[in-house]
Design goal:
The structure is a single chain. This protein has helices at 11-22, 74-81; strands spanning 5-8, 25-30, 33-37, 45-49, 62-64, 84-85, 95-99, 105-109. The protein is globular. The chain contains two helices and eight strands. The strands form two sheets. Strands 1-4-3-2 form a four-stranded mixed β-sheet, covered by helices on one side. It is α/β, with parallel strands linked by helices and 115 residues long.
């Protein structure tokens, strides 16, 4: 996988959010889409303009983990960036379910998952 594509109504706003969450930077823009990542590394993420707002659960989600900061403070940092917690009936699990400003679900893992 080199670049998952996330449809959104405002790719620039989506890029700002995800760059702040993942410590990425904008790598390029083409035809209204914005590619973010770390220079020279893959995968990158492309935020592309979708014709309609999100209406249903994503079939693919991003899982993130705070590897270089306080894990307990990470949910509040993400909410300050514009994320919202989401209850999907997950119960007591080792992650938080959130959604980005466009409503795309993602999980904040409560511990590092080793490959």
């Amino acid at each position: 996988m080199t670049e998952p594509v996330l449809d959104c109504t405002d790719p620039e706003a989506g890029a700002r959010f995800w760059c702040a969450v993942l410590d990425h930077e904008v790598l390029g823009r083409e035809g209204g889409a914005v590619e973010i990542g770390r220079p020279g590394e893959h995968p990158t993420i492309v935020l592309d303009r979708g014709a309609e707002p999100k209406r249903q659960k994503l079939r693919l989600r991003l899982d993130v983990n705070a590897t270089d900061r306080d894990q307990d403070a990470e949910p509040e940092r993400l909410e300050a960036l514009g994320a919202r917690r989401k209850d999907i009936g997950q119960g007591e699990v080792a992650r938080y379910v959130l959604e980005d400003p466009e409503g795309n679900e993602f999980c904040l893992l409560s511990r590092r998952v080793e490959p």
